[in-house]
Specification:
transmembrane transporter activity, transport, membrane, mainly alpha, 437 residues, DctM
C-alpha cells in the first residue's frame, strides 16, 4: 500500500479511536499496536514494551514531575490571591488597573505554576468577582482571565516546552528562553485589548480606583516576593550553567514546598498528601502519553509514513509560508479537540522534518505551535479554560465567556503573524544568552 494512503488511514483510525472516549495514551497504543500487527505481524508486539519504556529512559523527563510539584504547591495556597492582591494595590491608580492586575497576576502565576487551569482557578476566584463588582463587563472579566490562564504553557518554566524539547531533541533551555518575549508580547496585547474593551463598555464612575496606603502596599510583598525569587533563581541556575533543567526543577519544587509550609502554614499532612497525589497523577498521565507517543512514532516510521509525508511535502511547489499556513490550520484544529501535550507528541515527529526542510527554525516553530495550543484552551468544543471559568462563576453564561475570549484568540493570531514577520522575537533571546545554536 502507498505510504501516503496508509498515513491517511492511520489518521482516520486515530481520530475515531480518540473520539471513542478512551484516554489519549491508550488510544495511541491501540492504533500503533493494531497497524503493527496488520503490517508486521504479531512479532512486532515484542518491540512495543522496549520502545514504551525506552522512551521514558530520559533524564530530562525528571523535570516534568518536579515542575508540576512546584506549581501544585503554589496552587494549593493563597499565593494566587496574594499575587493578585499585591498587583491590585500597586496598580490601583493606573486607568483600568484592575484588569491589568488580573492579567499581570495570570502571567506571574503561570510562570510559577505552568498550569493553565490552575491559573484560571487561582486568579479567577479573586479577580472575576472584584471586576464585576467594580462595573467591568462580564465578557471582560471572564474573557481576560480565560485568556490569561493560557500563558501557563508559554511563559517558562513550561511543561509543554519540555515535552516539545524531548519529542524533538531540542534544547529545553533555549525553548524556555524563546517563550519569554512572545509571552510578554501576548500579555501586552491582552492588556491593550482589555483596556480598550473596558473603556468602550465600562462605566468609568464604577471603575474608580480603590485607595491603598503605602503601608498596605508594602505589607503584602513578603508573601509574594519569595515565589518570584524562586522563579528568577530557577532561571538563573539554568542559564548560568549552574545546573540542568531537571536539577533546577527539583530545587525549585523543594523551595516552593518549603515556602508554602512556612509562609502559608501548609503543615497538615493531608494537605501535603493532596499536593503530592495530584502532582503524581498529572505526571503519570503526561509520561504515559509520552511513552505511548513513542510507540506511535515508531509505528509511523516503521511503515515509512513519516518519511513519505516529509518527502511528499518537499516535492510540492508551494511557497514555504503557504506551507506554514497549512500547518497552523492543522494545529488549530487539532488543538480544538486534544490537549497540548498529546498534539505535540503526535505531530512533532511528522512536522519537524517538514519545517526544517522548508527552512524554519525548530525553536521558533515551538513558540508558534504553543500559541496555537493556547488558542485551543479557550476554543470549543474542548476549551478547558472556558469550563474552569464557568465553574468559578456559574452565573456567567458559557456563551458570554466564549464571546469574551474570542478577541483574545485574535490577539494570539496577531502574535503568530508578528512572529512570522519578526522571527527574532522568539530566537533573539536564546541566541543572545546561549549563543547561536
Amino acid at each position: 500500500m502507498d505510504p501516503l494512503v496508509l498515513g491517511l488511514i492511520v489518521a482516520i483510525a486515530t481520530i475515531i479511536v480518540l473520539f471513542s472516549g478512551v484516554s489519549v495514551a491508550l488510544g495511541l497504543l491501540i492504533v500503533a499496536g493494531g497497524f503493527l500487527i496488520i503490517f508486521d505481524g504479531m512479532r512486532s508486539l515484542e518491540l512495543m514494551p522496549e520502545i514504551f519504556f525506552g522512551k521514558l529512559d530520559n533524564f530530562a523527563l525528571l523535570s516534568i514531575p518536579m515542575f508540576i510539584i512546584m506549581g501544585a504547591s503554589i496552587a494549593s495556597t493563597r499565593a494566587g490571591a496574594d499575587l493578585y492582591e499585591a498587583l491590585e494595590r500597586w496598580l490601583t491608580r493606573v486607568p483600568g488597573g484592575l484588569v491589568i492586575s488580573n492579567l499581570g497576576a495570570c502571567a506571574l502565576f503561570s510562570a510559577m505554576s505552568g498550569s493553565s487551569p490552575a491559573t484560571c482557578a487561582a486568579i479567577g476566584k479573586m479577580g472575576i468577582p472584584e471586576m464585576r463588582k467594580r462595573g467591568y463587563p462580564d465578557s471582560v472579566a471572564a474573557g481576560s482571565i480565560a485568556a490569561g490562564g493560557t500563558l501557563g504553557i508559554l511563559i517558562p518554566p513550561s511543561v509543554t516546552m519540555i515535552v516539545y524539547g524531548i519529542a524533538t531533541e531540542t534544547s529545553i533551555g533555549r525553548l524556555f528562553l524563546a517563550g519569554v518575549i512572545p509571552g510578554m508580547l501576548l500579555v501586552a496585547l491582552f492588556m491593550a485589548w482589555s483596556l480598550y474593551q473596558t473603556w468602550k463598555a465600562g462605566d468609568v464612575r464604577l471603575l474608580g480606583a480603590k485607595p491603598y496606603t503605602w503601608a498596605q502596599k508594602i505589607e503584602i510583598l513578603p508573601r509574594v516576593l519569595p515565589f518570584l525569587a524562586i522563579i528568577l533563581g530557577v532561571l538563573y541556575a539554568m542559564y548560568g550553567g549552574i545546573a540542568t533543567p531537571s536539577e533546577t526543577a527539583a530545587v525549585g519544587a523543594l523551595l516552593c514546598l518549603v515556602i508554602a509550609m512556612v509562609i502559608y502554614k501548609l503543615w497538615d499532612p493531608r494537605a501535603l498528601w493532596v499536593v503530592l497525589r495530584d502532582s503524581t497523577r498529572e505526571s503519570v498521565m503526561i509520561l504515559f502519553i509520552i511513552a505511548a507517543a513513542g510507540v506511535f512514532s515508531y509505528m509511523l516510521s516503521s511503515l515509512f509514513i513519516t518519511q513519505s509525508i516529509a518527502e511528499w511535502i518537499g516535492t510540492l511547489d508551494v511557497n514555504r509560508w503557504v506551507l506554514m499556513g497549512a500547518i497552523n490550520v492543522f494545529l488549530l484544529i487539532a488543538g480544538f479537540f486534544l490537549p497540548p501535550v498529546a498534539v505535540i507528541l503526535m505531530a512533532a515527529p511528522i512536522l519537524l522534518p517538514i519545517i526544517t526542510t522548508a527552512g524554519f527554525d525548530p525553536i521558533w516553530f515551538a513558540v508558534v505551535l504553543t500559541i496555537n495550543m493556547e488558542i485551543g484552551l479557550i476554543s470549543p468544543p474542548v476549551g478547558l479554560n472556558l469550563y474552569v471559568i464557568n465553574g468559578i462563576a456559574p452565573d456567567i453564561k458559557l456563551k458570554t465567556i466564549l464571546v469574551g475570549s474570542l478577541p483574545y484568540v485574535g490577539c494570539m493570531i496577531l502574535a503568530i503573524i508578528l512572529l512570522c514577520l519578526f522571527p527574532g522575537l522568539a530566537t533573539w533571546l536564546p541566541n543572545a544568552v546561549m549563543g547561536l545554536g
